Amino acid sequence: MGDDKVFHVLFLSHRDSVRGVVAETLLNRLGKPHFVAYSAGTDPDGEINPEARELLEQTGFSVEGLRPKHYSEFGARELDFVFTLHDGAHGEAMPEWPGVPVTAHWECPDPLLSEGEPWERKQAFSRMMSELDRRLKIFVNLPLASLDRLSIQHHADEIGKSVGPA
Known about the structure:
166 residues, alpha/beta, four-stranded parallel beta sheet, 34% helix
């Protein structure tokens, strides 16, 4: 894995309307030009969740071109990493991805399931985005070119297990 390699990363969530598109958007900014991120769902919604769209726009991200997609759209794309963001996708039978990517489960609570006042929901969305941002900053700073596959797998798993400040 050379320094000039571009790594292709797929984030899998359930609906691909919140967590996946947020992770995709974050990594495409944080990892540029060494990472290209995509997101997909096991049962995608028809559109990006309005609260997720608003959060991304308010934090300076473009949502142009973002849309929920089914993971089958990536069946022929060679991927380097596939990260599941919800328990339903973790352990679910997925296609054999070309390129035999490193896979890991990064548990990420769904802010759509948060209850309470509107400000509490906004807080849940912000926490989700902050947690993904923290994990992705660790991920993009891994010395991937100097690590073997087993070490990369270990790091990816550990990043998924790590929990940031509450």
